[in-house]
């Protein structure tokens, strides 16, 4: 046990656990890096980027990653900024988009959505937004790359509403655009913040602040920019939504900020405002009701399992989100789902640069537990001996499917073991359907790279060669329990199967078929996740 004394409630109140979501290239990595810069966790910007190309970086745990130089799994970073202890959950993008990306959002208390000012809302942002929306967590929008001539800010605000269906409240409004992007006007503080470039973004930007009506700003900005700013503010106040904290906390209104992660313009004002508004860890739903983060009984749930992070050991790391109580080194807890006691041997935390052994951790923190194969996604751990279980983690609808079988029938046992373990880790989802008197196995994934991960790992870890055949389906929906599947009226291009828990699912090739089947079958409810609530 550590000797350090903590003020338990203060520790919880200063924690902020959030995910950064975006479409690839919008600037998520750059913004994360700038947060670390402002938090003092790195001295110069550029180190996170170079880590990405470093073949032995924390998350580069598999050959396939090294070959491609991309990160297949998401990671967690912790650092301090002023009085806050920040946990950032990274959500992988590019082709490595997977169900993990969605599941990570279950562990977050809020989300920062990064949008490229030139592109507006993009496809991957939409999907991640939907998961945040389902959970009803606060979503903060950072419109990035304002140093490039992007779309009109009013246009971008409209885009949020049209593409995502969310109302917004611009907290910071940009002054100028592209080369003329000079700063922001903070509507809550009624204050101008002008930036001076900090060494091309390597060091922090200097900020000059003051009243918008101050003549000095008219001089500094020139009358054109100043007039435009006054007009914009008036229009926003007249036609825009009001600031409503309650709606923000419930995810119905997104506060919007403009900036440039590359040049650090607007990064710190955003971080400060975000930390002021976004809540500390809140109560989580369980079978025994809502559990308060300030409850002294240590509890948490596993939301992600990552295999072979350390290439020298074939270990798995299970990521636990602490929901109440305090973790202390060497602690023994109840594994509720297994009905056993487990000692949490040397959990790890992912500080800004390295993995470290955790001495103490609190509600809101994420710890990585060594997993000898005893944890599953959704498992609950508690200190007190009570049958507490946190709400299950849903399975999200995959979008790519293939038939899979083993080449060597003698290896069927290893093949099934491999599939089961990879499904438990959440790399893939497995479905079955009767075929020619036997059973056909279908694998579904959220991002196509997972097919390669699957093939690679079955060959290298389980010694199994496989046959695969891509299928034309792009959608899957779970069927409501009380629907009689014998009466189902299908379209020619759809297919019925069962998931790992034997729940019926339907595979579709396009949205038209989904609508068609919905219309043809009264009482049929089609769901995009296997659990209704989050
Ligand atoms: P991601 O994690 O969301 O995929 O995006 P990342 O931060 O890697 O940024 C993607 C590209 O956009 C990078 O350029 C990055 O430098 C650039 N970028 C990020 N923020 C800004 C910004 O505020 N303004 C401008 N103009 N560019 C920005 P790259 O050329 O792909 O990489 P690099 O050569 O700069 O490393």
UniProtKB/TrEMBL annotation:
First-listed, main subcellular location of the protein, grouped into a coarse class: cytoplasm
Ligand binding (GTP): 22-29, 90-94, 144-147
CDD domains in UniProt: RF3
Subcellular location: Cytoplasm
GO biological process: regulation of translational termination
Pfam entry (one): RF3_C
A GO cellular component entry from the record: cytosol
Entry keyword set: Cytoplasm, GTP-binding, Nucleotide-binding, Protein biosynthesis
Single GO MF annotation: translation release factor activity, codon nonspecific
InterPro entries named among the record's database cross-references: EF-G-like_DII, EFG_III/V, G_TR_CS, P-loop_NTPase, PrfC, RF3_C, RF3_dom_3_sf, RF3_GTP-bd
UniProt KW rRNA-binding keyword: no
Keyword Protein biosynthesis: yes
Domain Tr-type G: 13-282
Family the entry assigns: Belongs to the TRAFAC class translation factor GTPase superfamily. Classic translation factor GTPase family. PrfC subfamily.
Function description: Increases the formation of ribosomal termination complexes and stimulates activities of RF-1 and RF-2. It binds guanine nucleotides and has strong preference for UGA stop codons. It may interact directly with the ribosome. The stimulation of RF-1 and RF-2 is significantly reduced by GTP and GDP, but not by GMP.
PANTHER family, per the entry: PEPTIDE CHAIN RELEASE FACTOR RF3
NCBIfam families: prfC (TIGR00503), PRK00741.1 (NF001964), small_GTP (TIGR00231)
Full protein name: Peptide chain release factor 3
Species of the source: Petrocella atlantisensis
């Amino acid at each position: 046990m550590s000797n350090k004394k903590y003020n338990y409630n203060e520790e919880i109140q200063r924690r902020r656990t959030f995910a950064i979501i975006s479409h690839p290239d919008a600037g998520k990595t750059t913004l994360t890096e700038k947060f670390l810069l402002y938090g003092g966790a790195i001295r110069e910007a550029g180190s996170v980027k170079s880590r990405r190309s470093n073949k032995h970086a924390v998350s580069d745990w598999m050959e396939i990653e090294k070959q491609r130089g991309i990160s297949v799994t998401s990671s967690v970073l912790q650092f301090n900024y002023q009085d806050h202890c920040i946990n950032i959950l990274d959500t992988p993008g590019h082709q490595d988009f997977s169900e993990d990306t969605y599941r990570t959002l279950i562990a977050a208390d809020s989300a920062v959505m990064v949008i490229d000012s030139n592109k507006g809302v993009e496809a991957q942002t939409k999907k991640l937004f939907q998961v945040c929306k389902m959970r009803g967590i606060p979503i903060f929008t950072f419109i990035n790359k304002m140093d490039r001539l992007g779309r009109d800010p009013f246009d971008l605000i409209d885009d949020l509403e049209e593409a995502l269906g969310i109302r917004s409240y611009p907290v910071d409004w940009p002054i100028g655009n592209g080369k003329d992007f000079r700063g922001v006007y903070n509507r809550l503080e009624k204050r101008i913040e002008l930036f001076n470039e900090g060494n091309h973004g390597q060091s922090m930007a200097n900020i000059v602040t003051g009243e918008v009506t101050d003549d000095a700003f008219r001089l500094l900005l020139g009358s054109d920019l100043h007039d435009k700013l006054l007009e914009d503010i008036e229009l926003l106040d007249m036609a825009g939504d009001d600031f409503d904290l309650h709606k923000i906390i419930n995810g119905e209104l997104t506060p919007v900020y403009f900036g440039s992660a590359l040049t650090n313009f607007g990064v710190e004002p955003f971080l400060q405002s975000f930390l002021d508004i976004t809540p500390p860890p809140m109560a989580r739903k369980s079978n025994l009701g809502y559990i308060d983060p300030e409850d002294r009984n240590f509890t948490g749930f596993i939301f992600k399992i990552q295999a072979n992070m350390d290439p020298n050991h074939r270990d798995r790391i299970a990521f636990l989100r602490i929901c109440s109580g305090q973790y202390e080194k060497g602690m023994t807890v109840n594994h509720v789902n297994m009905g056993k006691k487990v000692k949490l041997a040397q959990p790890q935390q992912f500080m800004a640069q390295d993995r470290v052994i955790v001495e103490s951790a609190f509600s809101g923190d994420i710890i990585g537990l060594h997993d000898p194969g005893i944890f599953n996604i959704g498992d609950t751990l508690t200190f007190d001996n009570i049958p507490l279980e946190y709400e299950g983690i849903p399975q999200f609808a995959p979008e790519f499917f293939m038939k899979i079988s083993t080449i060597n029938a003698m290896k069927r046992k290893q093949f099934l073991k491999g599939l089961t373990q990879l499904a438990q880790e959440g790399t893939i989802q497995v479905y079955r359907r009767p075929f020619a008197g036997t059973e056909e196995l279908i694998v579904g994934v959220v991002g196509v790279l997972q097919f390669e991960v699957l093939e690679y790992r079955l060959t290298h870890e389980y010694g199994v060669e496989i046959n695969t055949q891509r299928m034309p389906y792009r959608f899957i929906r779970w069927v409501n329990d009380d629907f009689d599947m014998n009466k189902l009226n299908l379209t020619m291009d759809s297919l019925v199967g069962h998931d790992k828990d034997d729940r019926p699912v339907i595979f579709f090739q396009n949205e038209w078929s989904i609508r068609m089947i919905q219309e043809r079958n009264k009482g049929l409810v089609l769901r995009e996740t296997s659990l209704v609530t989050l």
